[in-house]
Amino acid sequence: MKFYKEAKAKELSQNTRIFAEVREIIERVGKHGDIAVADYNVKFGGAPAASFRVPQSELERAYDEISPELRGAIERAAANIKKFAELQRDSLWPLGEVEVEEGVFLGHSVIPVDSCCCYVPGGNHPLFSTALMLVIPAKAAGVPRVCAAVPPMRGSVLPHPATLAALKAAGADEVYAVGGAQAIAAFACGTETIAPVAMIVGPGNKYVTEAKRQVYGKVGIDFIAGPSEVLVIADDSASPTVAAADILAQSEHDCDAAGILVTTSERLARETEAEVTRQLADLDTAETAAKSWEENGRIIIADSLAEAADIANEIAPEHLEVNVKEPFELMGLLRNYGSLFIGEGSAEVFGDYVAGTNHTLPTMGAARYTGGLSVMNFLKVCTFQHITPQGAAKLAPDAETMAAEEGLTAHAKAAAARIRKI
Ligand SMILES: NC(=O)c1ccc[n+]([C@@H]2O[C@H](COP(=O)([O-])OP(=O)(O)OC[C@H]3O[C@@H](n4cnc5c(N)ncnc54)[C@H](O)[C@@H]3O)[C@@H](O)[C@H]2O)c1
Ligand SMILES: N[C@H](CO)Cc1c[nH]c[nH+]1
Ligand SMILES: [Zn+2]
Fold it and tell me: How far apart are CA 21 and CA 382, in angstroms?
C-alpha cells in the first residue's frame, strides 16, 4: 500500500478548543435556559424570536407552499424510509415468557423511549432529507413525543420551509427553531419552553457532535454522526468520473468532511485526482468541497482488493462504496462501515435521499462499533423474569454461595428469604 494523496495533519489544539467552547455553551444553557438559547440563536445568525416553538400552522403552510415536484419527492422518499423502518421494526420481536429451568421464566419486552429530539442540520444547507431520516423511524418505533430541533435560517426566526414541510410529512409532534450545541443542551437539560427528552439523535457539524458526546449519560444519544465521509474502493474497471463525483458529493457538505479513494489501479488514482480538479471548476459549492478535499481527501493505492478491504475496515468510513467488477466477492471481507453501496450503480446519494436506508450514519471511526440509525435506536429491549417457589428453591442456594464469595451478605440473605426464615 502507498499514499498517492495524503490528508493534512490535524492540530490537536482544535479539538481542545471545540471541547471547551461546547462545554461553555452547555453550562450556560443549563444555567440560564431560554435566555441563553436565544442569545446563541442570534449569535449564529437567527433573528431575535419571542418563542422558538414553531407552530403547527407554519409546518402546514410550508408543506402547502413548496413546489408539487418537491412535495412529491419528499413523500416518495418518506414512503421508502417508512417501509424499511417498519420492516426492520417487525424483524425485532418481543420474546414471550420462556422457561429456562423449572419455575424460572424469562423474557424481554421491546419498549420505545418516552421522548426524543431529532436534530436536523441547517447551518450550511437545509438538510430537510434528514428530517425524514430521523422522525420517520422514531414514529415507526412508537415514540410518544417526537421533537425536532432545527437552526433558524440566517436573519429569520424560522427554519427553511423545505425542512418544515419534511417535518410535517414525517409527523413530528413538536418543532423548535434552535440549532447547534445550544439545541443539544436545551433538549438534554430542559429550558422554560423545551421539556427535556430521553434521547437525542441526528447528525451535525463538529459542535453539534461534540455537544451530543458531552451530554451523553444525561440523555441517550444514537452515536457520533459528524461531518460526512465516503470511502470508495475501486479497481481498474471503475469510472474516475463517478469516483470523483461521489467524493465531491460528500466533500461539499463541510470543510471537515472527508472523501477517500482506495484503489488497486495507479491509473485510476491519477485520473480520479484530475477529475476532482475538473469537476471542482464547475461546482457552486467548490469553496467548501475544495477545502475538504485539500485537507482531508486521500488517495491510497492498495496492492490487492483484499488489502483495500483491510484499509476500509481500519478507517471504518461512514459510507463505503465498492466500485469494482465483482463487488459481491468483496462483501465478505468488509466489516466496518455505516452503510455499504454495492457496485458502481449504487450511488451514495441515492442513500442520502430516496433509497430508504437511513443516511444518519456513524463517522470518525464509530462504525467500528455501531451501524447507522434505525428504528432499533428508539427501542429498548428490556428483560423481565418471573420465578415461582419451585424456581426460587433451585436458584437460592447458588445465589447464596455466589453472594457469600463476593462478601455481599445482604444479597445472600435476600436470596435465602425466598426459601426460609432469615
Ligand atoms: N454523519 C451523518 O449521518 C450526517 C448526515 C447529514 C449531515 N451530516 C453532517 O452534518 C453537518 C451539518 O453541518 P452544518 O454546519 O451545515 O449544520 P449544523 O446544523 O450541524 O450546525 C449549525 C450550527 O452550528 C453552530 N455553530 C456554527 N459555528 C459555530 C462556532 N464557531 N461555535 C459554536 N457553534 C457553532 C451554530 O449554532 C449553527 O446554527 C455537516 O458536517 C454534514 O457533513 C452528517
Ligand atoms: N450525506 C449526508 C450524510 O453524511 C446526508 C445528506 C443529507 N443531504 C444530503 N446528504
Ligand atoms: Zn450527502
Answer: 37
Give me the residues of the chain with pLDDT under 70, please. Answer: 12
Pick the residue whose CA is nearest to atom 8 on ligand 2.
127
Tell whether 119 is in a known binding site.
Answer: yes
Q: Which fold has domain 15-221?
A: Rossmann fold (3.40.50)
Any atom of ligand 1 within 6 Å of the Cβ of 85? no
- Mutating to test ligand 1, I would choose from 129, 150, 207, 352 the residue with most ligand atoms within 8 A of its C-beta, which is 207
Provide the pLDDT for residue 93.
Answer: 76
pLDDT at 279: 98
Q: Can you name the residues that pair with 299 across neighbouring β-strands?
A: 5, 261
Instruction: Write the DSSP string, 342-408.
Output: ESTTS-HHHHHHTSSS------TTGGGT-----GGGGEEEEEEEEE-HHHHHHHHHHHHHHHHHHT-
Residue 279 and residue 247 in contact, taking contact as beta carbons nearer than 8 Å: no
Enumerate the domain spans of the chain. Answer: 15-221, 227-371, 388-416
What does the pLDDT read at residue 357? 97
User: Mean pLDDT across the chain, nearest whole number?
Assistant: 97
CB atoms within 10 A of CB 414: 15
Q: Hey, do 15-221 and 227-371 end up sharing a CATH topology, with the first three levels equal?
A: yes
> For the domain 227-371, what is the CATH code?
3.40.50.1980
Q: Is 379 exposed, middle or buried (0-12, 13-18, 19+ CB in 10 A)?
A: buried
Ligand 2 contacts CB of residue 254 (under 6 A) = no
Spacing, Cα 249 to ligand 3 middle (Å)? 6
The whole-angstrom separation of Cα 288 and Cα 248 is 10
Atom of ligand 1 nearest to the CA of 360: 3
Provide the whole-model pTM: 0.96
